[in-house]
Amino acid sequence: MVAKTETFSNPPARDKLLDAAIGLMRDRGYNATTVDHICVEAGVTKGAFFHHFKSKEAIAEAAVDEWCRRRVARYTEDLGDPSDDPLARIDRWLDGLIESVREPVERPVCLLGMLSQEMAGSNSRMRTVCQAKLEGWTGLVAQLLDAARRIHAPRRDFDSLQIGWMLNSLWQGSLLVAKTRRDPEVVANNLRHAKAYIGTLFANG
Amino acid sequence: MVAKTETFSNPPARDKLLDAAIGLMRDRGYNATTVDHICVEAGVTKGAFFHHFKSKEAIAEAAVDEWCRRRVARYTEDLGDPSDDPLARIDRWLDGLIESVREPVERPVCLLGMLSQEMAGSNSRMRTVCQAKLEGWTGLVAQLLDAARRIHAPRRDFDSLQIGWMLNSLWQGSLLVAKTRRDPEVVANNLRHAKAYIGTLFANG
DNA sequence: CGAAAAATACCGACCGGTTGGTATGGTAGC
DNA sequence: GCTACCATACCAACCGGTCGGTATTTTTCG
Predict the structure, then answer these.
(1) Who's near B36: CB < 8 A, 6+ residues apart?
(2) Does the N-terminal or the C-terminal CB of chain B have fewer CB atoms within 10 Å?
(3) So what's the architecture of B56-201 in CATH?
């Protein structure tokens, strides 16, 4: 939050704890992940944990933050050159999403979706955090769609923010289904339909 | 012991426990819902709980079952006359979904989605249960789409099961987003886009 | 029928293990 | 000697589940 970040003198304990928390909470969720387990996974003791994070909830917040940071970094990479055709960038981005769940190491689980589902109804603080992340992501998509509209003739009017929310919802729901069915392919299929739908919004989609 | 206020009119403790479990787990999820809390909410003791359900996991399974039973009952009602035009039935069904989240009393939360998200990754038994429910629901939608294809000329070929999964995914994701944003309207918007997309599948959509 | 017997429904104190969190002490670098 | 960093021991609350016992309903059988 402060301009002067502590990243330069960061011993690995905090990072290892964050990685462990992300991994465990992605698999089991918040409540089923214990502080002790995070410590074991990170290879540090509880003293280190509560030195770096004031509570379990605090590391969950930090984990969501870090998770979203990494996702955005990947999306930015997938989108490619900002001067390219926005529609092409959206296509590349969706293709990146499809590919990402196909990578064997990368289970089709989103920490943000997991914690939103589990905590939004009972923990107002985490709900707010997740809401902000969700809105940030959707806003990015909406900007891309707006940019596309400025270049391509829209076949019919549409609310880009609404489309953004639809894509976000479809993405989260797809991950849920893919995890439950143990079949990531549903994500690919769903996103293909999403691409087709976006195509119908533009004249030469 | 206090005078029997309602014990005599056979108020099945099991039903009250199930209702309580559904309500609490829909709000807080599985792990954050304690057996004690379910008992208090149901107004029965722990003895009654473990008489009717052999474990906490068992009541979660039963709760999912009962929840899906109720949902299917509602969907069947919304679908209306089976001899009607399948496309009209699908439309009525989607409208029913939109309306359902607008009812103030009915928070936009699906127990099936909640437990799928929370447990599918760590509890293989519950994962299987949820998978079966998800597949049952999707199969129903696919049947409707197949029926529609038999009557209406499809503008282009499509896999009805795949469309079913997309609708299911979009529904679950929409609920997740609606809950996190505290705005059920996103569900309505998303389902409207889904209706539009289904329209593009048929000639006179 | 009616009483004994058995199954069912429910109660609530209790238990062993777990949980998030604390208190305290140590150590390395400035 | 001060601060950042980490280790160990410990705790009070809580959790899922057990258990011995009681009340009520259903079944068995003379």
Answers:
(1) B46
(2) N
(3) Orthogonal Bundle (1.10)
DSSP letter at B159?
-
Tokens (6 digits) for A193: 């339909």
What integer pLDDT is reported at residue B3 of this predicted model? 27
**In the 8-state DSSP scheme, what is residue B153?**
P
Asked if A177 lies within 8 A of B162 by C-beta distance, the reply is: no
Backbone dihedral angles phi then psi of residue A202, each to the nearest 5 degrees: -115, 155
Rounded Cα gap, residues A187 and B165, in angstroms:
9
So where are chain A's domains? 56-201
* CB nearest B118 (choices: A29, A135, A200): A29
Rounded to whole angstroms, the Cα distance separating B155 from A174 reads 25
Separation of CA A30 and C1' C29 in angstroms? 37
Find the residue in B nearest to A34 (Cα).
B31
Distances (CA, A) of B24 to A104, B18, B28, B77: 35, 10, 6, 26
**Residues B39, B22: Cα–Cα separation, whole Å:** 12
Alpha carbon of A2: minimum distance to chain B alpha carbons (Å): 27
Nearest nucleotide (C1') to alpha carbon of B31: D15
In the 3-class helix/strand/coil scheme, how is chain A assigned residue by residue?
CCCCCCHHHCCHHHHHHHHHHHHHHHHHCCCCCCHHHHHHHHCCCHHHHHHHCCCHHHHHHHHHHHHHHHHHHHHHHHHCCCCCCHHHHHHHHHHHHHHHHHCCCCCCCCHHHHHHHHHCCCCHHHHHHHHHHHHHHHHHHHHHHHHHHHHCCECCCCCHHHHHHHHHHHHHHHHHHHHHHCCCHHHHHHHHHHHHHHHHHECCC
Q: Note whether A170 and B169 are within 8 A (CB).
A: yes
Task: Choose the mutation target among A166, A195, A197, A198 for the interface with B, i.e. most B CBs under 10 Å.
Answer: A166
CA of B112 to C1' of C12 (A): 33
Nucleotides on chain D within 7 angstroms of protein Cβ: 5-10, 14-21, 24-25
B87-109 pLDDT, tens digit per residue, is 999 999 999 999 999 988 889 99
Residue-wise pLDDT tens digits, B25-36: 999 999 999 999
pLDDT in tens, B43-69: 999 999 999 999 999 999 999 999 999
Residues 6+ apart with CB under 8 A from B53: B17, B59, B62
Q: From CA B13, how far away is CA B16, in angstroms rounded?
A: 5
